[in-house]
Write a structure and sequence with these properties.
The chain is of the alpha+beta class. It has 13 helices and 23 strands. Strand 10 and strand 11 form a beta hairpin.
Length: 517
């Protein structure tokens, strides 16, 4: 579709498509318009969520047939051909293509009036979030949440904002103002680097705040309520995931020894326990370059988080292989520069190590750091914190062996929870950064590309992920598939999430790794 259609020139086409972010926003916006317009027809296009993301459903590319600067929109949609028995109904199919498709394209591309205003807001929202993210990184913060943000969601199965949700208001001790290109001067709550603990009564909004920080790695659509919530892009939520695969991870910061002399310096298992899986996820996230970890007590392994004085007294140290996170969390920040934001409702042990304590009270945020310090002074406990946290060893993946079995080559995803590579299913249900099925689909293609084309038994995993990121920057999502394909339903994932999928692949082999435990 040429971009010099009615409407675009009124919005100044050259400015509208001036840079990669604006082209991304245009593609995301038009995907939403076509998704709404295709309802009730035999046509379909990728179904967007609340995030503004790079999608393969609409590609904005230079117009090679036009002299001078110009653009075309390549729209990728799916058509369910009408059939009777084993025969296509040609006349009805021609009406779908010549009538329904043309009508909806013309409607979506008419960017005059209200639709044009919404597109401009869509672009402005993305640009403000990009600028806010850069401000967060420049100031060394973990996250910024603007005053007036509505964090509660409509329900457990809906990511849309809750009608009548309590708007956020920054405590004065945590408040800062930022200047954004479209929103102007914005006041909000700063979550600083270090150890941040979120406390409060049940159902008062602790996990809701953590979820908003987690989703702040992505820009959101206008009206979402979290448009001006921005988090460092490499933040990772880590949780316990019983049964996940672990390959060659150095767990010694958390697990010193195991029965029967099993190695924890290069630990491998096809069926990890809760504590082992979460310890592995922490190490893998740091290995992949994450600078902020997010944890919720409700989805964590308790014995990895804490061990109170009574249990330390009952079980001798030499019989307990697990060093809880509370003993390592300060060193994780001071030695590796990795901050933590965690929800704790059942233990006060983290008050000793917290740099900041946040209280959620009926969805109102309060800074109770000073009160927490008084509680610690009034009720002291023996301090058990350790000063060291070694830098994780960089694992070096081996390439996948050539395929010898006959059978279908399958590369796909099932929702956001499972990847399918030929005969292997990879469970990524605990990888919180995968919010769109299209991201999971893209990760499945990325995993195959890494295994078959990039892993060489010499390059560390992080270097391979950096190379993949550069490839996507240069060539877009089409770089993940065969050049003959035109994938319509891919959404760009983060590299920390691609790395998490690699780590959960049960057939992963590492260079120089001893045999499986």
């Amino acid at each position: 579709v040429p971009t010099d259609l009615h409407g675009l020139e009124l919005l100044d086409e050259a400015d509208l498509l001036a840079d990669a972010d604006r082209r991304l926003a245009v593609g995301d916006f038009l995907t939403r318009e076509l998704h709404a317009g295709f309802r009730g027809t035999a046509l379909s296009i990728a179904s967007p969520g609340q995030e503004i993301l790079q999608r393969s459903s609409i590609i904005v590319r230079p117009d090679e047939k036009k002299e001078g600067p110009g653009w075309v929109l390549e729209v990728r949609a799916r058509l369910a051909l009408p059939a009777q028995g084993r025969s296509i109904q040609g006349h009805e199919a021609s009406r779908i293509v010549g009538r329904d498709l043309v009508r909806e394209l013309e409607e979506a591309m008419d960017l005059t009036g209200e639709r044009g205003d919404r597109l401009v807001r869509h672009i402005a929202t993305l640009e403000d979030h990009r600028d806010l993210t850069a401000t967060v990184a420049r100031n060394g913060w973990v996250s910024f949440l603007a005053d007036g943000s509505v964090l509660p969601r409509r329900s457990g199965v809906s990511d849309e904002p809750l009608d009548g949700g309590v708007p956020l208001d920054a405590p004065e001790s945590m408040a800062a103002t930022v200047e954004l290109p479209h929103a102007g001067t914005v006041r909000g709550t700063v979550v600083e680097a270090g150890v941040n603990v979120i406390v409060g009564g049940g159902y008062h909004g602790k996990s809701t705040l953590l979820s908003a920080i987690e989703r702040g790695v992505y820009p959101h659509v206008p009206g979402d309520g979290r448009e001006l919530v921005a988090t460092v892009p490499d933040a990772v939520k880590v949780r316990a995931a019983d049964g996940r695969a672990v390959t060659g991870v150095d767990l010694t910061p958390f697990i010193s020894h195991l029965p029967a002399g099993r190695d924890t310096a290069s630990f491998t298992t096809r069926n990890a326990s809760g504590s082992t899986s979460q310890a592995a996820s922490i190490i893998e996230a740091v290995e992949a370059g994450s600078t902020a970890l997010l944890l919720d007590e409700d989805t964590s392994a308790t014995n990895l988080l804490i061990r109170d004085s009574r249990m330390r007294e009952l079980v001798a140290a030499e019989r307990e292989p697990i060093t809880p996170l509370v003993d390592r969390i300060t060193a994780l920040f001071r030695r590796q520069g990795v901050s933590t934001v965690m929800v704790m409702g059942g233990s006060g042990d983290y008050l000793d190590v917290a740099d900041r304590v946040l209280l959620m009270d009926a969805y109102h945020l309060r800074d109770v750091t000073e009160q927490a310090r008084r509680v610690v002074a009034d009720q002291p406990r023996p301090l058990t914190g350790l000063e060291d946290f070694a830098e994780p060893r960089q694992r070096v993946p081996e390439p996948a062996p050539p395929r010898t079995r006959r059978g279908p080559v399958r590369t796909r995803a099932q929702g956001t929870s499972t990847l399918v590579l030929d005969r292997e299913d990879i469970d990524i249900s605990d990888v919180g950064g995968v919010t769109d099925p299209g991201q999971a689909e893209a990760i499945s293609y990325a995993l195959r590309a890494l295994l078959e084309q990039r892993f060489d038994g010499v390059s560390p995993l992080r270097e391979c992920l950096d190379d993949l990121e550069a490839l996507l920057d240069d060539e877009g999502l089409d770089a993940l598939t065969d050049e003959r394909e035109r994938p319509a339903f891919l959404v760009r994932p983060r590299m920390v999430d691609v790395g998490a999928a690699v780590s959960r692949y049960r057939k992963l082999e590492l260079a120089g790794r001893p045999g499986e435990d």
